[in-house]
Amino acid sequence: MKALFICDNKEEWGLLRNLFHAHFSKVELICAIKASDALNYLSFEGPFSIIIIDCSIKRDDPSELAKEIFENTGERATIFIGTEAMLNDRVDQDFYMNHEMVFLYKKPFDPATFKSTVQESIDWAKREDFENSIVEINKEEYLPLKLKNFYLFDILPYDVYIELTKTKFVKVISANKKYTQSTIQDFQRRNVKFLYLHKNEHLKFLENSIEKITQTLKQKANKPKMILQAQIAGVLVIHQYLRDIGPAESIIRFSEIIIDSVPRNFKNFGELKSVLGHFPFENADLAEQAVLKAYICEALSIGLDWRSDLSRKKLGLSSIIHDCYLDNDEMAKVTHVDSPEFEMLNKDEQELLLEHPFKAAELARHFNGFTDVEFIIQEHQELPDGSGYPRGLIASKITSISAVFIIANNFVTQIAINGLSKVSIHNTVSGFISYYNLGNFKEPSQILKRMIKG
Ligand SMILES: [Fe+2]
Quick check: 39 and 52 in contact, CB under 8 A? Predict the structure, then answer.
């Protein structure tokens, strides 16, 4: 068990260390001089079961610090130490009264009473099971889920873990206990990419996510920015489901819901410029890229006056699944297999990149009623001058629907590389005009330029 002492007087550090050494030798005490150090310790050296805050710290407010800690890590047994005047002045009485795990210790130090206060906080922490949060588990029985998935909820009916070593995991979210968005942001800052769930619960999590996103799409239909967020979360779940479980009926149905929601929401925005102006391209990950491609395809279909729902649906499905087997977001930025970027990938990644159009095309066959999507997906990395892959097709061999998807794919790839800004959008379409001035590429590339440059 670990305790964190926040105090700017190093003499007190020694005093507390001696007290812990004498009475609580199993508790490791770590001392921090200021709030920012304490928050770093909590992020990188945790979990801490007990927090002790000296109320005489000068540059931080003790109550605000405790509140921030609770927000970041959940409620922890917390002891405020200070003279009677300090405790009255610097401890928020409502905060103290409303949290059973917050204790006060009145100075001067008296070993016997201090010991009993610490013991009380240890008992609370033990009851809360924090000391058991590091567990040895059989990794085979747990499956990773991308961190971003967890923004969808604030409470879950199962325990969630992060990986410390190959066999050791820390429980970071307890079943049926509320967690905050900042808990997830904190993992993101620490570069945690995945959280782990037991296999039996993994599927339930994905199904709950499907339900939640489906409801949002229905209920927030007139809130276009929220719909974009829900579509991105939806594609994240679809990728995860297809990779972990496969093309089951429920995920095929859910994909259709996402596909159908794109033209409806495009109408809310009215024009492509407005979509681009509001698009939450925060991580440039595969899910964000997929949804943006679906909107570019929708805009081009309108510009080409393609009234058939079917061709728009084909482009929607292609957008959602074409890169779903890529292992990481960086791989999607490689446009040529004779480029330095391709050379930077390891052997497995190179192999996967070459295969991914075929693998995703194979998957498309499971989606009934979407004929020809396999060809669009197989050809999505081809380029008009024959420099694309896997087959190096030239423009005259590429159908108009494939050409639209290739343009959408490469437009978003450039945005993923250069960022979503007016300058990068303008530069990208300017470059496209001469490069795509061939065969079936000519018309959609001119439409894209008109839509963006007006
Ligand atoms: Fe791709």
Answer: no
